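In the current project phase, the collection of sequences with tokenised folds has grown. One resulting record follows, to show the layout:
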Amino acid sequence: MPYIIGITGGSGSGKTSFTRKLVENLAPNISVLTLDNYYYPIHRQPIDENGNPNFDEPESLDLEKFKNDFFRLLNGETLYFEEYTFNNPLITPKTIIVKPTKIIILEGLYVFHSEIVNAKIDLKLFIELTDEEKVNRRLKRDIEERGYNHHDVMYCHEHHVNPAYKKHIEKHKYDADFVIPNFPNFEKGLKVISDYLKTL
């Protein structure tokens, strides 16, 4: 059976960057299944009290398909699916290919949400960052990569991101095997985890 790593943390905390560096350190024996590609289309997103789609609740994601794809991966299947582009018309979706490998990373806000998936995770990591810095990084990412404006990002942070973090995500910090501080960076934590995984 492959060794399963779950990586979560608040929006903008550095989950994707940490995961990318971990893959660089451990390639080719490692693959990633990221929740970012399991968002429902915008017309199926939950709507907040002001009529805006909320991408930060568990209901915004097809967690059932994520679970099924994860178990297909465990059974030795290779996954093929289309990249989710966060409704940015300027981006052409890529075909994502995830192969079964010795180490599999599950990365995203709600990778620990399913009890069935959670029971299969061997190593749980929580990437931690200050709230101020998370907002700054999310502003940069969402404006440059997802085509949002400053007002949209700040509205989402106040009405969606922060409430969802407090309600659903922060609690996982206390049952994680390692909390990786990302201020000013995660390099020390990355080295510890990479060295550990290389011994497996």
Q: What stands out?
A: Residues 3-198 form a domain with the Rossmann fold fold (CATH 3.40.50.300). The mean pLDDT is 92. The helical segments are 15-26, 63-74, 115-118, 131-145, 150-169, 187-198. Residues 150-169 form the longest helix (20 residues).
